[in-house]
Write a structure and sequence with these properties.
The complex is a heterodimer of chains A (584) and B (119). Chain A is α+β, with helices and mostly antiparallel strands. Chain A is built from 13 helices and 16 strands. Helices cover 48% and strands 19% of the residues of chain A. In chain A, the strands form 4 sheets. In chain A, strands 2-1-5-4-3 form a 5-stranded antiparallel sheet, with helices on both faces. Helix content of chain B is 46%, strand content 21%. Chain B has 5 helices and 5 strands. In chain B, β1, α1 and β2 form a beta-alpha-beta unit. The two termini of chain B are 14 Å apart. Classes of the chains: A alpha+beta (584), B alpha/beta (119).
Chain lengths: 584, 119
């Protein structure tokens, strides 16, 4: 048995075979589909919509938060670096303004100034004065750079037209990372000189490496060519070229998304004005999105769970409701069949009663006239006639009696249809009904066995209905039995309120598949032999009318047992739903 | 024994009256309720055999009126609508002393008449 055949609702394979008032009112499968799909659409659409909106809103909020944080980090750090550099440039400016060219040309004075700068600011390693020909005529520091000519160097050329210059970070002679800050002093004569100082980038590095960057991120300085000016956690030490392009110039701090080697980075950058430096903060997007991914996972699990639960509830409720409607509709059709049958029987009863009555009166006249002829022939001497005439009259009277018997039977067929309660001995009724079938049973050598427990009490019920119930069951049994079979009828007390009668035959039995439908109207396996499929359906209805229950068990090839439970007393008499035929 | 037969079928009631007369029972007949009551005004009977259904007035009503006029009278009802099953209850319903179903057997009728009169 497949899962589908287990789960398949009763209405699924429903086929409408009848027409007119017996037609089922609904297309159950379509009704079920409509219920499932419309409810699912109405329930799921807002859920999915809200989830998608929530998803998008969350995603945007998180992304803009990332951008905002990155921008703030970059602009804060830029301020620190700008401050660091401008502080040192201002110091040089101050020295330059505070000392005359002659004073600066004195190595002792210059050495004293360097010492003060080291103590006051830190990071200064040497100090030199260069004239407008590019010649460094005074120098104090760890190397002997006095007399070095810088006239061909780019920074010197740039400085001719500017006021100050900050160089890239480079190794220089010392093989130590440093940068150079130069300030120009214009003389009234139109000439100029330059005060030049080297600054160790250690302090500079420390400043940047102290910055906390989230998302396994990195913050560093590069020059406009993309060469690292400070060490980078992601791309290596200073003077290495970074694998991502330096973003285009912008006065303000900006945040971009950059892809490198298949990985997405959120990059914040700012050009530090007056320097060749670009401050860059690089964060791995996947790391930044981790908390969002967790939320997203929860959201998706929630969505899938909700949809599953909603669909299960919808399927369950729709199936249950359509099943109920299907059952109610079947009941309606069955009731219609019953009503129609009952009406047919009532009409037949009325018709036969009418016919019987109409025939009875002329029959009575024939009876009296023939009786009078017979009387005259036998009682009056003068009318005495031959035996032949008397024989003829006797024959007429015998035929009248036969007709009278027929009309009597017709009238009893049109008996009252109301439930008439009276105390009844169930065994007596069973014997009475079996009596009708005695001839057939004898002919086919079928044995009847009736056993009733001594404690079976009389029950208050309707005689006519009980007779019809047993007649139907016994007729069915006889149809199922082969010649020489056996029919057992047993009656016993079930409890204080009811008795049970079982009718068991040793006949052909009923297949399991048919057993379920056996009480349905028009279900018959004997259609070819004239079965109407109404017998057991009517029996079922009759048993219900007198407050009983009927059930059936059967084994193919072994026989069938019908069990009827009947109440000792019928609490409320249910009127049958048809008019009683007219008598009198 | 003097008997009044009431039935709207004249053919039936005349034949029955003659058959009873042949057996020495004095039987008069009427084919309507009015006729029956008129006859009853002039003389009395031991017993009336009434059809349950006669025109204008039903057998039960007629019985009541007749009984009012002649309180000692006995009644047997005859019906074309009976059956064996209704037999016992029918007697009680119409309040008759006896109840017979058409067509009648004359012997049965006479036996019942005697039984009723003796009771």
């Amino acid at each position: 048995m497949t899962l589908w055949s287990t789960l398949k609702p009763a209405f699924w394979d429903h086929e409408d075979v009848a027409s007119g008032p017996y037609k089922h009112l609904f297309n159950f499968r379509r009704m079920w589909k409509l219920a499932v799909f419309s409810t699912a659409a109405v329930a799921l659409a807002p859920l999915v919509f809200m989830t998608v909106v929530d998803y998008k809103v969350n995603q945007q909020a998180i992304e803009s938060d990332i951008n905002y944080q990155t921008a703030r980090l970059v602009s804060n750090t830029r301020r620190s670096i700008s401050f660091f550099l401008s502080e040192r440039r201002s110091a040089l400016n101050f020295i330059d303004k505070d000392n005359s060219y002659q004073a600066l040309g004195d190595p002792l004075r210059l050495a004293a100034l360097l010492e003060n700068l080291k103590k006051g600011f830190g990071g200064f390693t040497d100090l030199g004065v260069i004239d407008d020909t590019g010649l460094q005529h005074t120098y104090v520091g760890p190397y002997n750079l006095e007399g070095k000519n810088y006239s061909e160097q780019d920074w010197f050329k740039e400085l001719r037209s500017g006021e100050a210059h900050i160089s890239d970070v480079f190794l220089g002679l010392r093989q130590q990372l440093h940068l150079v800050v130069s300030v120009k002093h214009d003389l009234p004569t139109g000439r100029f000189y330059v005060l030049r100082a080297s600054i160790d980038t250690q302090q500079f590095n420390d400043l940047i490496s102290e910055v906390e960057v989230s998302g396994q991120g990195d913050i560093f300085l590069v020059n406009t060519e993309g060469v690292l000016q400070t060490a980078s956690r992601l791309f290596g030490s200073a003077l290495v070229r970074i694998p991502i392009a330096v973003p285009e110039f912008s006065e303000k701090t900006r945040v971009l998304e950059v892809t490198s080697a298949g990985e997405e980075f959120v990059t914040g950058y700012a050009y530090i004005s007056g320097t060749p430096f670009v401050l860059m903060a690089v964060k791995k997007k996947s790391e930044l999105l981790k908390p969002w991914n967790d939320t997203r996972k929860k959201l998706i699990v929630f969505l899938v769970l909700s949809i599953t639960i909603i669909l299960m509830v919808i399927l369950g409720v729709s199936t249950y409701l359509v099943n109920q409607i299907h059952a109610a509709d079947r009941k309606r059709v069955m009731t219609l069949h019953k009503v129609e049958y009952a009406n047919k029987m009532a009409s037949l009863g009325r018709l036969s009663a009418g016919v019987a009555h109409e025939i009875n009166n002329p029959l009575a006249i024939i009876n009296e006239k023939a009786g009078l002829i017979k009387d005259l022939l036998t009682l009056r001497k003068e009318h005495a006639a031959g035996d032949k005439l008397l024989g003829l009259v006797e024959s007429v009277l015998a035929s009248v009696e036969r007709c009278a018997n027929i009309t009597k039977r017709l009238l009893s067929f049109a008996r009252h249809m109301d439930i008439k309660l009276q105390p009844l001995d169930i065994e007596e009724i069973i014997q009475e009904v079996l009596g009708f079938l005695g001839k057939e049973a004898e002919y086919r050598s079928i044995e009847f066995h009736v056993t009733a427990d001594p404690d079976v009490p009389k029950i208050e019920s309707d005689r006519g209905r009980l007779q019809e119930i047993f007649l139907n069951l016994f007729n069915n049994a006889l149809a199922a039995l082969g010649d020489g079979g056996r029919l057992d009828v047993t009656a016993r007390r079930t409890d204080a309120q009811s008795i049970t009668v079982s009718v068991r035959d040793t006949g052909c039995g009923i297949p399991q598949a048919d057993l379920k439908r056996i009480f349905e109207p028009f279900f018959s396996t004997k259609t070819e032999r004239g079965g109407t499929g109404l017998g057991l359906s009517i029996t079922y209805g009759l048993v219900q009318e007198i407050g009983g229950e009927i059930s059936v068990e059967s084994q193919v090839g072994q026989g069938t047992e019908f069990t009827i439970r009947l109440p000792l007393k019928l609490e409320s008499v249910r009127k049958p739903n048809h008019a009683s035929p007219v008598g009198g | 024994m003097q008997v009044l037969l009431v039935d709207d079928e004249e053919e039936l009631v005349t034949a029955l009256a003659e058959r009873l007369s042949l057996r020495g029972i004095e039987a008069l007949w009427a084919t309507s309720a009015e006729e029956a009551l008129r006859v009853l005004e002039t003389r009395s009977f031991d017993l009336a055999v009434l059809d349950v259904k006669i025109p204008k007035i039903d057998g039960l009503q007629l019985k009541k009126q007749m009984q009012a006029m002649r309180p000692g009278m006995k009644f047997i009802f005859v019906t074309g609508h009976g059956s064996d099953r209704d037999f016992k209850t029918g007697v009680a319903e119409v309040g008759a002393d006896y109840y017979l179903v058409k067509p009648l057997k004359i012997e049965d009728l006479i036996t019942k008449m005697k039984e009723v009169l003796e009771s």
